[in-house]
Structures are given as C-alpha cells and as structure tokens.
Amino acid sequence: MIAQEPSAKNRPEFINVRVRRQDGPGQKPYWELHKIKYEPEMNVISVLQRIAAQAKNTDGRAVSPVAWDCGCLEEVCGSCTMVINGRVRQSCSALVDRLLADHADEIVLEPMSKFPVVRDLMVDRERLFRGLERVKAWVPVDSYYNLGPGERIPREEQERNYPLSQCMSCGCCVEACPQYNKIEDTQKPNESEAEFEARKDADFDEAFVGPHAISQAMLFNNHPTGKTLAADRLEALSGAGGIATCGNAQNCVAVCPKEIPLTTSIARAGRATTLHAIKKWFDK
Ligand code: SF4
Ligand code: SF4
Ligand code: FES
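ok -> structure tokens follow
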C-alpha cells in the first residue's frame, strides 16, 4: 500500500522530532526531543530552523541550537546528508509530508555513522575527499595557454560518463557500505597539526577507498585528457583498500540519490585493474 501524505483534514498540529545530539568530537551522544508546529511543505532543514528558533526541548528546557551542515538546498552539494528515519539521504530534499506519511509519530534525525561527528548532525567527511585524492579524480591541466579544441567525445561515451559526473560526494554510498568502517583519529599531545594530518591520511589510505571514488576513477579514466593518469588510478585501486576490498554487497547503488550505476563502475574497475596487473607483469 502506498503511504498517503497528510491531507488538509488529517494534518497533525505538532511534529515530534527526535535528534541524536553530540556536543563535540569524541563526546557521548544523547537523544533530545523537540516538538514543533506543523506547517505544510516543510523539508527537514526547515524543521531544524524551527528547532533553532524555539531554542528549547519538549520539556521546555533551554537548549543550544542543533548543528547541521547545508549549502545548495537543492540536492547538489551533498553537505546536508544525514540519517532520517533510519535512511541516509539529503535533509534539503527530505519532505516532511512524505516522512509523516511513512512515520506519523515522529521524525528521527541522526548523523552519518561512518564519519566523525563534529557536532550534532554535522560530520567530518574528510576521508571521502581523501578517497578522491587517492584515485586522482581530476583532469590534469598541463598548461595555461590555449591548446586549441580538446578531443571530441563520442555521444556513447558522453552518455556513459554523464551519470557518473553527477556524484556530489554526499557520502550516502559509504554510509550503506559494510566495507567502509568509521575511522576517528584524535590529535596526540605534542603532535603537530601537520603530523596529525599525515597520520590521518595514512590511516585513510590503508582503508577502503569507497564506491564513490572507484566510480570517479572510472569516469576520469574514460576522459580523453583524464586518461593520461589512468595507470596511477588503477594502481591506487589495485593496492590496500582498493577494489579487492569491495564485497559486492550492492548496498551502495541502492542508496545513491543520483542513481549512479556504482556496481557497473565497480565491475569495470575490477576488469581494468586485472588488465593493468597483466600489463605490468608483461612490462617487467
Ligand atoms: S556515488 Fe552517489 S551516494 Fe556516493 S557520494 Fe556520489 S552521489 Fe553520493
Ligand atoms: S558493492 Fe562494494 S562498495 Fe558497494 S556497498 Fe557493497 S561492498 Fe560497498
Ligand atoms: S544542501 Fe546541498 S544537497 Fe542539501
């Protein structure tokens, strides 16, 4: 049965919102209940704005505003990603009327579990971007003077590349991936900022790179200029935390809000890394 959005007659007067809060990195999380007045056509960001404006919980106790991240407010930047009623998604495109149709009682908001919490619903996605650095997910610029028109990309290749280019580094795929486990390093006493950053990068580089990065490696390996770094990308995917770590559970593809064919990218990366290994063996 398809859940119905609240009609004018059965709209609730108030909405209960349960938020998993955390006052800072490494602190103990706790649940906090809020009650806000229902308004039609709200999204989860507007719910959080109402909570901030009220500045008190359901017991009437004054509380600090819940922290969250957002940017574009139109499901493009990926920064507002959180777990809403148990499902990872963007809070700007999570419409309250639809959420209430599925869970009439309350809306439950939690931060993503695979990244360190900065505060409340705001997480540190640094590892996600480190994954993109590991696979050199960019087109190298080899000069700043006019090189003339670039190579033409056939339509079939454009159609293959376009869906992959929509990745917004939101983190939904890694949140759902059983092979991507949280890494939370803390700075040691007497460790400089540079030493701490280097240790974090080393830890990230040992662990699974993630489906988003595998898919971006396939996107840039299929670009006329991007493919000049193809061997480096395949080398990165062949090492520790690379393609072999993927258990093919396919959770990632099921949650990607941009419907990126991640398992197709993973299969392509598997074939490409095998060919890369054979080529390296013959080149010895
Ligand atoms: S592949 Fe999809 S789920 Fe993963 S980061 Fe990109 S847009 Fe988000
Ligand atoms: S297919 Fe691989 S990357 Fe995707 S969820 Fe499964 S283990 Fe993770
Ligand atoms: S604010 Fe950019 S995706 Fe939600």
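Residues 14-119 form a domain with the Ubiquitin-like (UB roll) fold (CATH 3.10.20.30).
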